[in-house]
Amino acid sequence: MAHVCYEATHLNEQETGDRRGHGKDHVKWICPEEPGTRESLFSTCMELMMDARLDPHAAVGLHWHLDTEEIYYLPEGSLTMTTARPDRASHTARLHPGDAHIVKLGQGHYGVAGIEGARFIAVTTRRASA
User: Which residues pair with 60 in a beta bridge?
Assistant: First the structure.
């Protein structure tokens, strides 16, 4: 397991404000299976699992899940997450402890931690190879 602190997680320089991403994200990588960090722990489509803590008001920048799906589970704090579609339609929800946020194939998302910050567990799966 690795412990990493990211500045502006998923920085999106084409966007402004919270959609751009800002603030610190303190991450404990439980199992990184992304290309370049693969540990080959699984024989299925698991890509990553992490335990992350966003500083108060930190934002995860808008990014797209073209080949992956992801779920955030929030055990602590609050997090406002916006799910976006390519046609620019979006849905925003405020998450509290015990809530989850799902991103499906082809969707994008960004999020902002509340005044107390937010801790979330993220699990990502990759599209199965044909």
Answer: 111
**CATH number corresponding to 2-126:** 2.60.120.10
pTM of the model: 0.87
- Cα torsion at 16, 125, 55, 58 (round to 10°)? 10
CA torsion 65→62→14→24, rounded to 10°? -120
- 17 φ/ψ angles, rounded to the nearest 5 degrees: 60, -145
Measured CA to CA in angstroms, residue 94 lies from 1, 82, 111, 119, 127 at distances of 30, 9, 9, 14, 28
HSE value, Cβ hemisphere, 13 Å, CA-based, for 6: 20
pLDDT tens digit string along 107-121? 999 999 999 999 999
CA-CA-CA-CA torsion sign (81, 103, 40, 34): negative
Nearest-5° Cα angle at 3, 71 to 25:
55
